[in-house]
């Protein structure tokens, strides 16, 4: 499911089945490291969109959790914790975060959802078919992670 | 002005021009041609048959083929990925099934549930279908998998629209 009215309508009817929230954590900066951040964000979006397409009956893809790259981590952890608690209270059983920002690794134990970090890949310099291949490979790893967490 | 700025601006222009060109081609030219030659196509965007595989690649074991179709939503025309599970049945006839689970739309896989071999399996709520796409009673899906319309031409398999069984 995506964050669009039509899917929310389905969600309202099928809550019991749609029990997994998917949130991408996207760092933003237009200073140093902007290009790497943007390209990481692009890659993450490709992967979560594809994951949603394949598992749309159970996974609800939310708008990204976006933040400035130099924001205080503690504050972010708190805000993300708030999102997660709210989603759980409202009926989600699993919350997954997908990010290209490996600074989250250090805070993993403080997060109540499960963290998935995608590798940094210079997508820009790749030809289409190779790019496709990589997104596919990364998506299928993520799908397997979901499936293993479900069972 | 520094070098950096000039490059950036040139890059921007490049993007802008590509954008406009692409937009003109897709947004203006194509529909006009289509109206001119075949007005009926207007409603049918996305239903044209697409070459998906060589017929000789198709065996009696379902195999997944990925392809792209053009779709038009409220704002723009884009390409969307599609997949099909394709095999030949006992009579040698080609069967092309949509992988979209009839429960809530996840993508089904072939033969991935060890307890129920040779079935299509949906990882979301464990929906199952037999090889011909019939939903297994007692699992969430309430209908068989859709079937793609297909045709074979010059040794290639073309797929059209996926339709509920009985209509295809
Ligand atoms: S979406 Fe396939 S079983 Fe629910």
Automatic annotation (TrEMBL), chain A:
InterPro entries: DUF2487. It comes from the Bacteria. This is DUF2487 domain-containing protein. The lineage of its organism: Bacteria, Bacillati, Bacillota, Bacilli, Bacillales.
UniProtKB/TrEMBL annotation, chain B:
Belongs to the Rieske iron-sulfur protein family. This is Menaquinol:cytochrome c reductase iron-sulfur subunit. InterPro entries: Rieske_2Fe-2S, Rieske_2Fe-2S_sf, Rieske_Fe-S_prot, TAT_signal. Residues 86-159 form the Rieske domain. Component of the menaquinol:cytochrome c reductase complex. The Rieske protein is a high potential 2Fe-2S protein. PROSITE patterns: RIESKE (PS51296), TAT (PS51318). It comes from the Bacteria. The main subunits of the menaquinol:cytochrome c complex are a Rieske-type iron-sulfur protein (QcrA), a cytochrome b (QcrB) and a cytochrome c (QcrC). The chain crosses the membrane at residues 12-33. It comes from Parageobacillus thermantarcticus. Keywords: 2Fe-2S, Disulfide bond, Electron transport, Iron, Iron-sulfur, Membrane, Metal-binding, Oxidoreductase, Transmembrane, Transmembrane helix, Transport. GO terms for molecular function: 2 iron, 2 sulfur cluster binding; metal ion binding; monooxygenase activity; oxidoreductase activity, acting on paired donors, with incorporation or reduction of molecular oxygen. The keyword Transmembrane helix applies. CDD domains: Rieske. Gene3D superfamilies: Rieske [2Fe-2S] iron-sulphur domain.
